[in-house]
Design a protein that fits this description.
The structure holds two protein chains of two kinds. Chain A is mainly beta. In chain A, 0% of the residues lie in helices and 55% in strands. Chain A has strands spanning 5-6, 9-13, 18-23, 31-37, 43-50, 55-58, 61-66, 71-76, 85-92, 98-100, 104-109.
Chain lengths: 110, 114
Amino acid sequence: GEDVEQSLFLSVREGDSSVINCTYTDSSSTYLYWYKQEPGAGLQLLTYIFSNMDMKQDQRLTVLLNKKDKHLSLRIADTQTGDSAIYFCAEPSNDYKLSFGAGTTVTVRA
Amino acid sequence: EAGVAQSPRYKIIEKRQSVAFWCNPISGHATLYWYQQILGQGPKLLIQFQNNGVVDDSQLPKDRFSAERLKGVDSTLKIQPAKLEDSAVYLCASSRRTNTGELFFGEGSRLTVL
């Protein structure tokens, strides 16, 4: 995970948008991934983006990719209490070994 | 479809003791992974199997950790002897094929070494 960096904490009010940021190092990555981990549970694939895309939207989720700056972000619109979790950015190596960031803990307050 | 099953969910042992974790992947998934997740960190790959063969065990501390997937289905991860720094959640994941980032994770086995 040392090649993938994320801010550790984010607090957001219910109904607002959340933006989680990530920087990665391998410019040859074909896909980049976002995983979600709820308390006491394993990781669950949330969404991913192909490296030739700048943006991908999936319902309340928007992924933005800036390849020049090696920056990936995940925006959650209308954040709900069920969105409280740890969000991991992940990039694959050339042989598809996933490297995970340390995770961003999102806390949704009423 | 049933998810990835892991047991036990929790284990507390003293240092120098041994422990084993079991994982049953999603049916039909050829690739199985064991990850170590230390509190406050992202998961770190320990070992990857393709069917019953090892694809990558470069990050596995082989002096104390071992893993097997004898019949290409379920897998066991063993630690002997355990150290304090082995306290972590051990996550098992599976995928349909090797070259994918779409992994399906179990709930994990939380190990506390005293």
